[in-house]
Design goal:
Order of helices and strands: HHH
Distance between the termini: 50 Å
Number of helices: 3
Shape: elongated
Length: about 80
Amino acid sequence: MHWYVDQVLRLGTTDQGARRRFLELQGMLREASAILKPDMLFRVLLDLARTRLLCRPARESVAPYESAPASAVGPLDRIEKTDW
């Protein structure tokens, strides 16, 4: 459920109808099931398909968070800053 609400909030940044419905829900002007109605579900799924399937970024050969192998680290890189 949290994932779906996150998607509704993300959609609300570009879709005025989704934003209005969520704010009405947050202000208790509508019932909680208002964001689960078929028209809203369709909007969320359509936005998800647009962003995930059509705008998929090209994969890199190496993930940016992978560290370099130990042999690639120079001797000065192994010194901790507390040693200075």
